[in-house]
Design goal:
135 residues; 15 strands; mainly beta; Elongation Factor Tu (Ef-tu), domain 3; 0% helix; 8-stranded antiparallel sheet
Amino acid sequence: MAVICPRCGAAYDITLFQFGRCVHCECGRWLDLQSGHTLTHAGQAEGGFPMAEISVGKVSHYFSHLHVAAVELTGTLAVGDVVHIHGHTTDFVQPVHSLQVEHQAVQVAGPGQSVGMEVRDHAREHDIVFKIIAD
């Protein structure tokens, strides 16, 4: 099965890559192999400028039956942000599709709040959540 980059049309055989991963396309964008969308905030920006990661929280619990991570925030996180979840055995990048605070959907959450965030891969307690931003 192939995923086609919507920006340049390059095809990637997803059987060659691990699911839940992104690949750097020939056109310079990062391609989400699960959804087929390009991620503008992952890896490098247009023109080759490096992207930075800032820590915005830590995973406090993972609900495997829902694929949801509970995250204790130390920074601000919003729907549409691209996050990198990294731990001892965890390492994946994904966009934030939805956030919940006490079972209520929110667009933005800040320091001190505990949020629920759907994740594409298994997250573990103590994994660090980084927000990918332009330098």
